[in-house]
Write a structure and sequence with these properties.
mainly alpha; 10 helices; about 130 residues; globular; Protocatechuate 4,5-dioxygenase, Chain A
């Protein structure tokens, strides 16, 4: 039986963090902490004593620094999965546009305008029919 060759992997997009097995292992503590925020009592405990809560999950210095800086991109670089990080971002009062602005290096207002401009360029059913 011939061995199968995996298809070539596309080069990463600059500034993105690939969430693969290595990233999952690296970010396990951070993602476990973020998952815990499904419970209101855990969100309250984090807000009451952030350092103690991070200690409870054994966050690395890189992860702790990213959390303290409220830097979602740094959390992703430290192995955070955006779906878990969204729970933490919500505690910080960040929404999807705030995170998108961080990811693109834009201000929140510029990011929102970019979304509106891109949406305006998409043909609607009415314009597609002529």
């Amino acid at each position: 039986m011939a061995s199968q060759v995996a298809p070539p992997i596309a080069p990463p997009i600059p500034g993105t963090h690939i969430f693969d097995g290595a990233a999952a292992q690296k970010g396990y503590a951070l993602n476990a902490m973020c998952f815990s925020f499904n419970e209101a009592a855990n969100r309250d405990a984090f807000l009451h004593d952030e350092d103690a809560y991070c200690d409870r999950f054994g966050l690395t210095p890189q992860q702790r620094d990213a959390v303290a800086q409220r830097n979602v991109l740094a959390m992703m670089a430290a192995g955070g999965n955006i779906y878990y990080l969204a729970k933490l971002a919500g505690i910080f009062g960040l929404n999807v546009q705030d995170v998108g602005a961080q990811q693109t290096g834009m201000s929140v207002d510029a990011f929102k305008q970019m979304l509106l401009d891109n949406a305006a360029a998409i043909p609607t059913r009415e314009t597609a029919r002529g």
